[in-house]
Amino acid sequence: MEANNKVNQEELEQKNKSKFAKKTASKSVLLGAAFLMATSSIGPGFLTQTTVFTQQLAASFGFVILISLILDIVAQVNVWRIIAVSGLRGQEIANKILPGLGVVLAIMIVIGGLAFNIGNVAGAGLGLNAMIGLDPITGAVVSALFAIFIFVYKEAGKVMDKVAQIAGGIMILLMVFVAFKTSPPVGEAIANTFMPQEISWFAIVTLVGGSVGGYIMFAGGHRLLDAGIKGQESLPEVTKSSVTGILITGVMRIALFLAVLGVVSQGLAIDPKNPPASVFQLAAGNIGYRMFGMIMWAAAITSVVGAAYTSVSFIRSFHPKIEKYHNWVIIAFIIVSTATFAFIGQPVNVLIIVGALNALILPLSLSVILIAAHKKDIVGTYKHPRWLTVTGIIVIVLMGYLSVITLIEQMQKLFG
């Protein structure tokens, strides 16, 4: 009898340990997905955009950040929930709504991801140049090898989650330090966040496009799906993870905004050739410049990983061999991006056009998701909250209109 009780007790302890391990692993994946999405959006363009717009709008840029965060949350919560409930990737959902639409969406995202990854690889090279004086092209190659190593490793998903978390944490800590160093007018920033003296819709569409446009919109959702987190029972955790990702991006954006505002309010001149690097140098001298290099590299390398992983996730379901060897396809994606930068450089015109097109992907993707949210053959018995549908439609209309206007303006600048 005692022996049986001992066996039962051991089995119970083993089950509890197994449950705890699964719960811990699930939390790690959820946090990793949030950081993957956040760090994918925090790339070299993020640093430059935030610096330039703060120069132009000063304290009123706080309002732009607030509105963009609200729009980002609406978009991400909608997308992550439907991916989790359906158990399908973005392109698979699109193909179920209209055969071939998923292929179109995948092509747009892969082309956009590849173009931006050239910029991300370049940013990583520039980051190592500022941090340790390494030649930018050599730095880009070294960074690419680091990214490739992640996907060579057997447990690539876990390594990717951990790299995103560590890099994200380092960026936030360094950015907050510089924000304190510049002593920004916080009171003025708060006042203008809710009652701005100037509003720039162009800045809003740029920030939203950079935060949840293109591949970034699906980065976290696809990561959770690959880790097996799906179904209606997982929705509370999925929703929390999506909001956490946006808030991480918001903390980074606010810290950089305050750092730049502190420099601008002191009447110091920011170098237009490299605005974010100039801010860090003005704030903390040569050490500040090295810190910028660290932030730039961390921002770029996580964006390289995020862009490659998510872009390839859009073509995985198109052929069994891509599914089987998807890590090697991701590696090829990184190699092509790096080779393009090393031998050709950044195709500026292509990046500008693709950047504008990237913003157009958001209303298209979100439209697909909202249609899917109300189709039983995709979501089953799930009932999508009405407030998410209504706010989602508002984001689609607003971003669709602003994206078209922005694209026309960019085309006129290039070819007009």
Task: Characterize the structure shown.
The chain crosses the membrane at residues 29-47, 59-85, 97-118, 130-151, 163-180, 200-225, 246-269, 289-315, 327-344, 350-373, 385-408. It is a multi-pass membrane protein. This is Divalent metal cation transporter. It is found in: Membrane. With 416 residues, the chain is mostly helical. The chain has a single domain (38-374, 383-415), classed as Amino acid/polyamine transporter I (Up-down Bundle), CATH 1.20.1740. It contains 17 helices and no strands. The protein has helices spanning 2-41, 44-57, 61-86, 90-97, 101-132, 136-152, 156-181, 186-194, 201-212, 216-226, 235-265, 275-313, 320-324, 326-343, 348-372, 376-379, 386-415. The radius of gyration is 22 Å and the shape is globular.
CATH topology: Amino acid/polyamine transporter I
Identify the overall geometry: globular
**H/E order of the elements?**
HHHHHHHHHHHHHHHHH
Question: What is the CATH-assigned architecture?
Answer: Up-down Bundle
How far is it from the N-terminal to the C-terminal residue, by CA? 89 Å
Largest sheet: none
Number of helices: 17
**Could you tell me the radius of gyration in angstroms?**
22 Å
